[in-house]
Structures are given as structure tokens and as C-alpha cells.
Amino acid sequence: MTVNLIINGLFDEPIYAGSGRYLVEEIGSVDEALGYMETRAFDENDLIANVTCKALSKCLEGQLPVSAARETFYRMLKKKGLLVEPRTALNDGEFSERDVA
Fold first, then answer.
1. pLDDT tens-digit readout, 21-47
2. Dihedral sign, CA of 29, 86, 89, 99?
3. CB–CB of 72/54 below 8 Å?
4. Cα atoms in the Cβ-side hemisphere of radius 13 Å centred on 7
């Protein structure tokens, strides 16, 4: 299974990114992460976005592990306030947002 993850660029677990005020996008692969980066149109002088794009591209070229590319993308989203944590069920059946701050 690990070989399949590397070949396809699939993340071991998806990342949820904000896409507008009420939309959340599930990102499950390096290709999807690059697509998200392209649709957000970050400023070309944005160092964090540029480093993230380079890491994702290097992963597709086989120069960087998928886990490292995923972590870079995750940290970029968190830094920019675009990361959305999935809801988790509590013992009593209620749902609560996980705090990432």
C-alpha cells in the first residue's frame, strides 16, 4: 500500500481547506493540493505559498516524500487560517470542532 501512496501522491489522510466563507474542500492528494493552490491565486511574492508549491511539485517529481509535501501544505493552510479541522464525535454523541490554535 505504501508504494501505491507514493506513486499516486495520495495523502495518508485528507486535509480540509476553506474555500470561501462557507465552503470546505477535501484535499486528498498532491494533485488536489496543487489545484487548490492554483485556484486560490496567492500573491507571487508570498514566500509561504511559493515554498508550498515547490514542495508539492518536488513530490510529483519524486524528489520529496508525500508525507513531507502533505505536512508543508497542512502548515501553510494553518498559518494562513485556511485549515478546517474535521468535526469529532464526543462520548455523548454531540459534535464539537477540534481546536487547532
1. 788 899 999 999 999 999 988 888 999
2. positive
3. no
4. 4
